[in-house]
Amino acid sequence: MKTCLRVLMLWLSGAITLTAQAVDEARTPAVEAAAQAAGAAPVTPAQLAYFVVSGPLPAPPQDVTDLKFREFVRTPVGPNGTELTGRLIGLNGKRVRLVGYMARQTPPTPGMLVLSPLPVDLGDEDESLSDDLPVTATFVHLEAGQAGVTLRYLPGLLQFTGTLNVGLAEEADGHVSAFRLRLDHADSQRLAELGRAIITDPGR
Questions:
Q1: Confidence (pLDDT) at 204
Q2: How much is the CA Rg of the chain, to the nearest whole Å?
Q3: Which CATH number does the domain housing residue 29 bear?
Q4: What Å distances lie between residue 118 and 8, 91, 126, CA to CA?
Q5: pLDDT at 49 over 90
Q6: Which one-letter DSSP state was computed for residue 143?
Q7: How far apart are CA 129 and CA 116, in angstroms?
Q8: How confident is the model at residue 50 (pLDDT cuts 50, 70, 90)?
Q9: I want to staple 138 with a disulfide (CB 3.0 to 4.6 A). Which of 13, 37, 179, 195 is the partner?
Q10: In the beta sheet, which residues pair with residue 95?
């Protein structure tokens, strides 16, 4: 069992534009080879931009609430340790939009990704996840029917919309998560399509 133990004291700032270099980073040889073998269609940078935050976001739908990582836990940490905020608890089981960075995992776990307030590299299989991820790291899950899709790494600041779930739960890779986001159908479908397709750069 591996849990996230540290409280992040770093706030999100700025925005990152998807560039040709970012498209190169998003290419994972193993995933690309599998997609090509399956006869997948190419994906252009414009399609990747659905998740990438490159400027101010429009207002979310009426039944979706914007949630920021800095709203997860109370700061400063008091004598009782890490405490969840009333806002986070109140949004448990509701639809939220969350912005963060996809943790780079080698190898990735099918059907999910980890969203963090800052870029994180989890390339060492022997290194505990708790040593790298902040306590607010959120496990983002595709819909049940897409649980077998291996997702490619997407660089930059990303946005995802889904249903928030708060509470300890064991993940498929053996880690224990405190926060999860079950993606809406549209986000899950688009992300799964990226996992199955071949990324190309039409500008080259």
A1: 33
A2: 17
A3: 2.40.50.140
A4: 9, 22, 21
A5: no
A6: -
A7: 12
A8: confident
A9: 179
A10: 163
